[in-house]
Amino acid sequence: MSGRGGGHGFSSRTTQFAIISGVGVVTLLYLFRRMFWRQARASSALANGTPASLQQPEVRPESTSYARHTPSERGSALQAPSSNSRVPRVRHATISSTVPPLEADLVVGLETCQELTKNLERAFTNLELVRNRSDKDRNRAEMVQSVLDRLKILETDIQRLVAEGGSAAGDDYGTVSSVLAGYQSPRAGTLSVLSDDSFMSAFEDFPPNADEDIGEDLEIDRSKLILYETGLEKATAGEVFYRKPRAEFTQCESETEFAAKVYCLREAFEVMLKDEHRRLWLAKSGRQLLGDIMKHSKQDPKPFYKAFDDMMEFCGREQNQDMIARELASRGVVVVSFWDVLLDFMLLDAFDDLKNPPSAIFSVTRNYFLSQSMKYSTISTIVWSMLKKKRQRLIYAEGFIAHFYNISETVSPAITLGFLGTDETVRDLCLYFKDQIQQFVMDIFNLRRVRYTSIDELADDIWVQLEQKTELVLTRLSSELIPI
Annotated region Disordered: where (predicted)? Predict the structure, then answer.
């Protein structure tokens, strides 16, 4: 009895062993078959001159259905290739074959970043229209805005890498122009002029808010643009000088058109500001606007008010005019006008600097672990240190630039923290202020927004635009609750 039981047990173990061995042999044969098939496929690909990684995989009937993957499986599928794997480099079609592979990759990355920025800006435009519909829509809009801010900083960093890489490589890579030879970017920047319809392309990048009255376009016969034609003659003859070319930003088709309009705007601003009432209104509005931004940033505006009043008093003295002109001339400002000094030299340059802030300041503003008071104190120290060095190089210790530095020292920490910090409410206010200023600049350079027919008519239209944009910002600032 026991013998039969023992024999039966032996037979069962033998059967199990045979089954396991058979499965193992079949598995090994299958693995060897796949290995030899891959080697044969790779050899065939190399013989044909085509990397195996670029050949189309075999499509099996059972693979046409969509498979569901767990998060862990998806994560493993998205892991980066190992260091010993070879990934073929596909050269961008618009880049010259003489461009080194490293620089070509950077240029393609820059183009991709710019295209992504463009897509997100369109998404943000749509979200802005419905952001007040619910908390969810508002949070989504704020999140997209945050991503856009970081993406623009990333784009600036990539641009710097492209420029530095091209110039630093010396004889191996040549200059930046050689690196970009043959490369045509579809969008060199957010405000590139892509068509004759410059006004609409401007609004594509800086969409007006839903509650804003943008007015109607003007329809003026070209023959009536007498002032503009005069400016065009001056610009063509090379008689119009300016500190910085801004044809792309102002949506002008050429530097000649930009220079012609600068000539007209200088004449119009001079006429506009002869009115003492307008000068006082502008000074009061600018003082209130920056002071309110400081209040929203929980900072005391009194030091700013004092610095601002001192600047107004200094500029109002007739004996200081020659000193102001000499100081500004040393900074490239060729004409003391509203456009050259306030808009171009002060505001637009400040906005340009915010696109690429010093790494020390940016790391502080975006640090979520530091309190607002600690951030403000740190930024104030950095700004003070920077201005101290700048003051040592001044021509006049108590001149126009010195007074400008006094204002900067009081307002820059709050403004910088507002634009670059983590407080979404304050950042929205600062960005709204920036957008209105930039939109005002583009409007006054647009033949369909202001009349370049005569100096007086252009001055009146500029004042309407300036008054409208200023009131919009002041209303926005006053409608938001100031934190206690």
Answer: 47-90
